[in-house]
């Protein structure tokens, strides 16, 4: 088979705006049992976050969900003021979203009876039943390298660097339905704590390799500080977590971080997580939200775990809240602007406990 035989059927991103019947269906699921009732309650908690004028919503993302067709769901959440900050893995933001913004695609593939050695020889990467052109990913890497070369040589938080990626896309995007571009326009900060663990890492090491004496770097502690400052500014927060991993823990930890810095702030008031991880293995991805309360991170009044694969659950939950329409009454927080200009002085935002 030729490369073109594999890379021919594009992944299409689901558009939650088209399916207004989802509200009645998710409400009806609340009278069922098992995962259906849990999903219905999670959707209602997310709607509570949106209705609560004092609440800032933090969306956390992990897993290969954009390559699987969920990119437009998150894009629409940003564009319709349903999220105020994002914490993500690098693969989603760079290898999948920024990659598609440059004009490239993900393709329908398969996993059974596949010859992965043949894929490797053809420069095709596989994510379960999705195919990606490795040669196009290298262009994505090189674009990150190009952006890095153009910037002032200093330590950056991932948020600052991703903002520069958004600025680049304003003039250069071939696909405008981009999470990075939408977040840049709507001033929604995106944090990627493990930023080098993705396609961006290859571009950044090339930048540092070719500029050993003077180069930019990524400061993960600055990421943590900026998100902690955002929590101090926001006070009340809700988290909507898709899968687990570093984004989940990073976002939960900011409550503890504010305490370490001497601020008396509430735990995350609302929390929803979609996951397929098994709680019995003791891993962070599967740890329950009630468990997080023992660490002082999540209030247990409005929390819900949804044990479901994200491509099934996210369109239902986000679609429910979109068609309920509470987002129409929300004010944009524009935390990117605040972090760029006013986040240095936190005096007076919250009374210190020390």
SSE arrangement:
Elements: H1 3-6, H2 22-29, H3 34-51, E1 55-61, H4 66-79, E2 85-88, H5 90-101, E3 107-108, H6 116-121, E4 124-127, E5 130-133, H7 134-150, E6 155-156, H8 158-172, H9 179-186, E7 190-191, H10 199-210, E8 217-218, H11 220-234, E9 236-242, H12 245-260, E10 268-275, H13 289-294, E11 298-307, H14 310-324, H15 335-341
Parallel strand pairs: 1-2, 1-9, 2-7, 6-8, 9-10, 10-11
Antiparallel strand pairs: 3-5, 4-5
Helix pairs in contact: 2-3, 3-14, 4-9, 4-14, 5-7, 7-10, 8-9, 11-12
Which short descriptors sum up this protein?
354 residues, alpha/beta, Deoxyhypusine Synthase, six-stranded parallel sheet, 49% helix
Question: Would you mind describing this structure in some detail?
Answer:
The chain has helices at residues 3-6, 22-29, 34-51, 66-79, 90-101, 116-121, 134-150, 158-172, 179-186, 199-210, 220-234, 245-260, 289-294, 310-324, 335-341, and strands at 55-61, 85-88, 107-108, 124-127, 130-133, 155-156, 190-191, 217-218, 236-242, 268-275, 298-307. With 354 residues, it is α/β, with parallel strands linked by helices. It has one domain (3-327, 334-341): 3-Layer(aba) Sandwich (Deoxyhypusine Synthase), CATH 3.40.910. A 6-stranded parallel β-sheet has the order 7-2-1-9-10-11, sandwiched between helices. It has a 3-stranded antiparallel β-sheet with strand order 3-5-4. The radius of gyration is 20 Å and the shape is globular. The mean pLDDT is 94.
